[in-house]
Design a protein that fits this description.
Distance between the termini of chain A: 29 Å
Largest sheet of chain A: 9 strands, parallel
CATH topology of chain A: TIM Barrel
CATH class of chain A: Alpha Beta
CATH architecture of chain A: Alpha-Beta Barrel
Low-confidence stretches of chain A: none
Radius of gyration of chain A: 17 Å
Strand content of chain A: 15-25%
Number of domains of chain A: 1
Structural class of chain A: alpha/beta
CATH superfamily of chain A: Divalent-metal-dependent TIM barrel enzymes
Oligomer: homodimer
Helix content of chain A: 40-55%
Mean pLDDT of chain A: 96
Shape of chain A: globular
Chain lengths: 276, 276
């Protein structure tokens, strides 16, 4: 087993979606090569090998898991589908615990044929249903508000204020928020809501908003290529006492077309110049 | 001069951008043919004929002008450009007054090379600079928050809460908000902010959010084709005492490719079935 201290990058985490073409094994090897101490895997990456093998791979490389992407997607048009979503979230909690991370990132899901108010109720009910198991397994539910452009089809939880409302509703140390600058940077009250989130901040993701934004889903930018002040937002988050991993999560077709090692090298450089 | 009472549609307004291929004259004639009592023109539509001629065209057809689109775009990278923007907004106020509408819709502008905080200051300063002239000419400044997807390049004013903050800052009967459901529907606190806006609501625009949304700028939907509950939002706005025109404003490439008369007919049908 290697030891990976992270060198100058003790908080840097590679969210594996940033290099979309790599398998989990390649992502783990990439982190080891680039001395990146944290990894944020996606569940579909270990469908084939199973979560125990994924955990072994990551552990053997000396990496820590910052969070697991992703639970959520609670709203559905039938009771059966909603129950299935809750069951799948229990499985995700088990996987997070097996991987040794205490944060499951929740993308709460879109309207799925419901009114937005009904869908929001389904989200509340869904989180309530899985909370006892999350607590039992020592996994925190990290509600990630998505950009309002995704309110209909990916996350009715569309602002940090709303994510904070939801976390407060549960008033539990096992429910908090994950802040991704892409989703919240535009908000005139983002600082107020970061302060309100305070100790319930469970994760922080960096990237950038490109101008023009040609594709809201897969047109996210590398830090420094867009208009977001990542450093300022990082300072506001840190000021609340958050000292956990900082994940670089970028969905970008151009970046996906590049060599993964180049992306990781640039990611470290931009993390130093635009985040730290 | 004709008289156009609007029949069953006394509040319906045709925002001319909905049929993008029509000249102002064609838009006016379309309203007359379809017995639509209100029109919401765009400034670039009378660049060629001049505002006096535009006013005459509209008046002669018996139409009323719900609002003029648009002022704003205050942030810029140089002092000269910011001064030019203020000058252009004064011109827009003159045009609104000439057309006989008391509402100038403001799309405040994007970052234009500034931090988002600086750009927001430029917006405040810009509105402050034109306010005395707006009052002198009897034209209200209707701040339209745009969808957060446009925060970088079109309107740093990206939520109804922020628009309300801005209107409250001026605390003037000459500054209010224009609510377009496309831009605000996703907000968990939209009802709270509509109530907060109260008597300062100066305009209401309807359309829809399509799923999937393939283009945030020009992929807006006809009422009923998407996921927004236009009727509920209209009821919340009306509950604050707003009884002014309801503009149909749709930027949609597919709708733009259709025959304008078909669009107006469908617009009336959908207004009845999904808004009233």
């Amino acid at each position: 087993m290697n030891s990976n201290s992270g060198g100058d990058f003790p908080r840097l985490s590679f969210n594996t979606r940033t290099v979309n073409s790599w398998s989990l094994k390649e992502c783990v090897e990439g982190c080891a090569r680039h001395d990146i101490p944290w990894i944020g895997p996606w569940r579909d990456q270990f469908d084939d090998i199973g979560v125990e093998e994924a955990a072994r791979l990551i552990r053997d490389a000396g990496l820590k898991v910052s969070s697991l992407c992703r639970g959520g997607f609670f709203p559905a048009s039938t009771r059966e589908e909603r129950d299935a979503a809750i069951e799948d979230n229990r499985k995700a909690i088990h996987e997070a615990a097996t991987l040794g991370t205490d944060v499951l990132v929740m993308v709460n899901g879109g309207m799925a044929g419901n009114s937005i108010q009904e869908a929001r109720k389904m989200v509340r009910n869904g989180i309530g249903a899985i909370l006892p198991y999350a607590e039992e397994r020592g996994v925190k539910i990290g509600i990630e508000p998505l950009h309002p452009a995704f309110a209909a089809d990916r996350a009715v939880t569309a602002s940090l204020e709303e994510a904070n409302d939801l976390a407060e509703h549960f008033n539990s140390p096992w429910v908090g928020v994950v802040i991704d600058i892409y989703h919240v940077w535009w908000d005139a009250h983002v600082r107020r809501e970061i302060e309100r989130a305070g100790k319930s901040i469970l994760g922080f993701h960096v990237n950038d908003w490109l101008v023009p934004n040609t594709n809201v889903l897969v047109g996210r930018g590398m830090m420094g290529d867009g208009v977001v002040n990542n450093r300022e937002l990082r300072e506001w988050v840190d000021a609340e006492g958050y000292d956990g991993p900082i994940e670089v999560e970028i969905f970008n077709e151009e970046i996906w077309s590049r060599d993964g090692d180049d992306v990781l090298a640039q990611m470290k450089e931009r993390y130093l110049s635009h985040v730290l």
